[in-house]
Amino acid sequence: MPGWFKKAWYGLASFLSFSSFVLIIVALAVPHWLSGKILCQTGVDLVNATDSELVNFIGDIYYGLFRGCKVRQCGLGGRQSRFTIFPHLVKELNAGLHVTVLLLLLLALALALVSMGFAILNMIQVPCRAINGPGGICLWNVLAGKCSRGVVALAIMSFMAAVKFHSLTERIANFQEKLFQFVVVEEQYDESFWICVASATAHAANLVVVAISQIPLPEIKTKIEEATVTAEDILY
Predict the structure, then answer these.
(1) Which CATH number fits domain 4-215: 1.20.140, 1.10.3470, 1.10.3230, 1.10.287?
(2) Membrane spanning segments where (predicted)?
């Protein structure tokens, strides 16, 4: 059975893996991966708006991996409309890249559960050593943690690539717009994106915790006092 020191660190590792699992679920569910400002270029051109009047033609947009919302400002007041990525909007995007992000996050969910399971297993019993070194006693926990962190990081980079190189926000803003043309004037990564980054950070912290758990504690040896027998003790 592992000692209290290892049990404490394995318990922390399992908590970090579970936290990463929950964070990915939240990131998938909350539609706030990116938010921004969109300019109604058609409305600006129609009225030949000056710089001071542009604020009347700037609306808002936010979206996640499944749904989002935009507010159009085209001179007639704000008009809010909600949209879903699947099944129609995904055809206007880079479908392969978007689906890749989702698949990577689903894989990260599975790996987070695997990592948590092996951390709990290490708390209960000492598994058979597979390799020498710090990762020997918890090989599968280390592998699952590393793979999960890499998968989440790859999903984050894929989403950033879709935003920067495939004009994701502009495509979403102009989806099914026949009269108006929108231009993205500002965009920033929102809370769900940073929650996903926090999930990758939790996996990195998990690897550190597992490494620390392998540090051997110094053994405390109690000094045994030698009994002295005198002649008086023999008599009694």
Answers:
(1) 1.20.140
(2) 12-34, 97-121
